[in-house]
Amino acid sequence: MSEQDTHTFPVLPLRDSVLFPGVATPIGAGRPGTLKAVQAAVADPDRLVFVVAQRENRTEVTPELLYSTGTVAHIDQIQKTSGNAVQLLLDGKFRGVGVRFQEKEGRLDAVVRPVEEILPTDTEDPAFLGLQRELRSRATDLGREIGIPDEVVKGFLQNVEEPSTLTDLVATYLDLPTHEKQMLLETFAVEERLRMILLHVERQINVVEAQQDIKDQVQRELGDRQREMVLREQLTAIQAELADGEGGDEIEELRERLEALDLPEEARKEVDRELGRLGRSNRESMEHQVIRTYLETVEELPWNERSRDHLDLEAAERILDEDHYGLQDVKDRVLEFLAVRQLRERRKEDSAGAGESEGEMVVDEAVDRIAAEIAEETGDADEPSETPSSDESTPTPAGNEDDRAKGSILLFVGPPGVGKTSVAKSIARAMDREYVRISLGGVRDEADIRGHRRTYVGAMPGRILKGMKQAGTKNPVFLLDEVDKVGASFQGDPAAALLEVLDPAQNDTFVDHYLGVPFDLSEVMFIATANFLQSIPSPLLDRMERVDFSGYTEREKREIARRYLLPRQERENALRPKELDLTDDGLGEVISRHTREAGVRQLERALGKLCRKVARKIASGETERLTVDPEAVEELLGRPKIRPESAAREDQVGVATGMYYTPAGGDIMFVEAATMSGKGKLTLTGQLGDVMKESATAAWTYARSHADSLGIDPEQFELDVHIHVPAGAVPKDGPSAGITMATALISSLSERPIDHDLAMTGELTLTGRVLPIGGVKEKVLGASRAGIHRVVLPKENEAALDDLPDDVRESLEISLVEELSEVLELALRPGEVSSSRPSIPRGSDEIGGELPH
Hints:
It is a single chain. The protein is built from 27 helices and 26 strands. The protein is α/β, with parallel strands linked by helices. The chain has a seven-stranded mixed sheet with strand order 19-20-18-17-22-25-26. A five-stranded mixed β-barrel has the order 1-3-4-5-6. A hairpin with a 2-residue loop joins strand 17 (655-662) and strand 18 (665-676). The longest helix is centred in the N-terminal third of the chain and has 53 residues, at 190-242. It starts with 6 loop residues before the first strand and ends in a 26-residue tail after the last helix. Mean pLDDT is 82; it is low at 377-403 and 831-853.
């Protein structure tokens, strides 16, 4: 670009700074106009901006506020920081003069003319060369004065050969006001700029030397004062020793409390060592405070405090049933744990009693034997003799070793809102143990789990020991909430730190970095909660016993709402029990048409909203009591937000009903297949994933290879086939729709209708085998809610039927299949159908969608 050329660049204004050519500088940009200029520059392939300093430090920028001379720079890097701000790395290219500034789309643009620098006529002139060498030498001296090693400065300057680049580089690092740096930028003659910068370097060297002289003088004056201060501190310590022992009583009390603790040997050695250091340290020193805080932490930990387990199984079962409806698997696991503890305690007592009786018999025999021997030796049978004590004679009963139960480590897995956290609290209440909860969501620092080492300022124990101190007992119920939300960072992996905590073979010697000695966690009942297993590292998952929380059925939601949610919302919204009468149909309307979830959180919010609406009517005097039926629900809560799928009304060709699983519960979907004239092309739509596309291809291959047995005319395969899964905006994937796609495809090719009251799920192989799938309970429940009465499942999923509620199993006809031929026998109907295909009512999760008729 020549000096006569002009170019338009976005303007990047700088406050209190000047950018020189040949220098790469990071800057932060956050003003709206600056951000728009950066966006415009990044959109251009050259990524150039005109960087110019402001005359005044203002937020709003106008052309009159800017200098005319600036630097055209290239944006090398751009990184988003907090908020809308960005961090830029600018590389100055050449000087330029803004001929004209103009506002455009919320930013400033400048028409820039490049500036050619003026070099001496003779660049080899000794005076010019001497100026360069002197500047290099004095720049090195300045670096030495401010503490930069000579080799660093020399290495930095040796890479610069051009005198113009040398001046700009040194000017960048000079401590000068903005207007003086701008003068250097506007000085186009290189020789003149060399002289100006050399003058500034000399001034700064003189300033630094003057500052050093002042510092030395101050240090000399402070030396005497420091000595006086140390002597005064020693005098204060002596006076404290000679006084009445103020503060000494507290240390002595701490020592007595620590000596009274029944500590393990390793912990006892560490405590004694720290007590010795505490006695030798100055009471006012930082070290004294750190040691004392550590010893107080040790003293507050429950080394041997235990809460006695409540082992009444009937009472525990009653408490669990009072707090939660359903969740039988979880309740059974807790009751099994309590039964084992109860049996162990009972047999331990029986064993101790048997050992005592046996010991008494041994003592009697020993007494008789010793008395007989003495009588023989002395000839005096009446002489009293010493007998060994019963303690010395009683043998140790079998099984008398410390057989306390190890703490269980459970993992509650399930969607949000199904009661994982509240069940843990109920378990603690049923066992009469202390309850501690820590949330691990978003934890990215290993020190949060294992604590900080005491060498760091502000060190503290990790969350595990803090929880134990909060519990005050050695065997609490310890909830590790959201364990799947733990993330690794440069500060370590908290999930790896949890491996020792949750390993029954290791956690009896858990070492917190702050504590520094082993602490026994083996009696703690750890309960972890998670929404997704995939986010938990496999070594950590291997250490926990998994307990699955599946979504609630509609019947279970009704019971939970009646027993727990509605009474609680009535209390919170100041309603009396008789003022709101929610009918069964009205409650069903709230559950099915206003919420869609596996848990009950949204249901409780909807009931709370309903209670508030009723409370308003009662407070305003409109009514004294309100009966809420489905019509009243729509009036109070508005139009339904959920439109669930419902079964098709009649048999159709090429339309099969499938079942799918979501974390919010199961549902049905329709797979449609249609043929048209073409060249045998298979088209798939509906935003399908790779696995689902492969299932459709396998179904197409199966149909072609079994055309004779399926009654398909070979000419049908010369037609184009289109398979579509509605709700195209929702991504879909997974192998469980294999038999559904195959049934729809074969129905379309053979022109046989499909039973509209039949839903199916299963993975299909190329040979026609039906493989098992997951989420059987949720899928079958979703089909039942949609009005389906017949269900087809893989034979290998038969065991999963035990998880279905009895009322659902009784209302459905469930067929178990191993081959696709069995599916087709159940699904396809004989006969011809008309070409017209009536529409199927479909739902939508969007608010305001059309309701099915």
